[in-house]
Write a structure and sequence with these properties.
Layout (H helix, E strand, L loop, with lengths): L9 E6 L6 H12 L2 E4 L18 H6 L1 E3 L12 H17 L4 E5 L2 H9 E2 L7 H8 L3 H11 L1 H6 L5 H14 L3 H5 L3 E2 L6 E7 L3 H15 L2 H13 L6 H4 L3 H8 L5 H25 L7 E2 L7 H14 L1
Parallel strand pairs: 1-4, 1-7, 2-3, 2-4, 7-8
Antiparallel strand pairs: 5-6
Helix pairs in contact: 3-4, 5-8, 6-8, 10-14, 11-13, 13-14
Length: 314
């Protein structure tokens, strides 16, 4: 992820694990600067998941311009490349209006794709894709272990989507996916002056917020969201159906789990997701990107805005 020269247009980035306060800080910065908040969270792109994904409320969205929130139907999966193309347009639109574009989200793959570009993998042969997707993940994982052993070693044997992707790439292009990923094109990072801030509050505070968040997911509104998804009969492998909270609430609605069991399972899933994000954002972004370790409700909001102000004016 490259930093850019100070003569280039500014782009703010507020990233971190779920429930770390990204949306609140982005809104505060947007109100302070007249900026546009651009979603960088893979669940918040779906119109079906306002409560489940903890999207900004309608009242919050009225306080500042928000883009790429709830703009896709759940039946249409949004890849990192899809989102990056849309985000580029929104960044350009904000800049054309002399507004500060403010990326806010916790999907590291989305952020890396936008800033660094994407691997130029050719279109996959439809026949190969159909064949791969017709088999179970166990079958595909065994095949991947034979055809691309390093990829199989990196991936879990139950990671159906990534295993299928790696297998179809090696079969369609003759090159491992990892080789393609070493080549990046179309990134925005070299065209902007990036002002990043990573939110990494204390884990105990973060996990407590995760617990509170899943409690809200189990509200009538959250249950209604998942019920509507189930009523549509969507493919259970779609990202919208695999979002944190959907499976646990769906099991409750089907009578497979009690409310307390669903709460426990959902809280565990949310904490595990936050832990993975926390680890990623601790290690992957450049060391020069500032990290904010204090909660926003304990002085962190003012300090976070000060860090961003300094980066934006530098």
């Amino acid at each position: 992820m490259n930093m850019a020269s100070s003569s280039r247009p500014r782009l703010a980035l507020i990233a971190g694990p779920t429930a770390s306060g990204k949306s609140a800080l982005a809104l505060a910065l947007a109100e302070r600067t007249g900026g546009t908040v651009i979603n960088a969270d893979s669940a918040q792109v779906y119109a079906d998941l306002r409560i489940i994904s903890a999207r900004p409320s309608p009242e919050e969205e009225q306080r500042a311009l928000h883009r790429l929130y709830g703009y896709r139907d759940g039946a249409l999966p949004c890849s990192a490349a899809d989102w990056a193309a849309d985000a580029k347009r929104e960044v350009a639109a904000a800049q054309a209006e002399e507004r500060l574009p403010i990326l806010a989200g916790g999907t590291g793959l989305y952020i890396r794709t936008l800033l660094d570009g994407i691997a130029p993998v050719p279109e996959i042969d439809p026949a190969i894709r159909a064949a791969v997707r017709s088999y179970s993940v166990a079958h595909n994982y065994a095949a991947l272990a034979q055809e691309d052993p390093p990829a199989a070693a990196r991936l879990g044997p139950s990671d159906a989507a990534r295993v299928a992707r790696a297998l179809e790439v090696i079969r369609s292009t003759g090159r491992p996916l990892a080789e393609w990923q070493e080549e990046r094109a179309g990134g925005l990072g070299g065209e902007v002056e990036l002002a990043p801030l990573i939110l990494l509050p204390p884990r105990d505070r973060l996990y407590a917020r995760c617990d509170d968040r899943f409690e809200k997911m189990m509200s009538k509104e959250g249950l209604d969201e998942v019920r509507s998804l189930l009523d549509r009969g969507l493919n259970p492998m779609l990202p919208v159906m695999r979002a944190i909270g959907v499976r646990e609430i769906a099991a409750f609605l089907r009578g497979e789990l009690s409310r307390e069991e669903a709460l426990a399972a959902g809280r565990t899933a949310t904490r595990q997701y936050a832990k993975r994000q926390y680890t990623w954002f601790s290690r992957q972004p450049p060391a020069g990107w500032p990290r904010l370790a204090e909660p926003l409700d304990c002085g962190g909001m003012a300090n976070g805005l000060a860090v961003l102000d300094a980066r934006l004016s530098g």
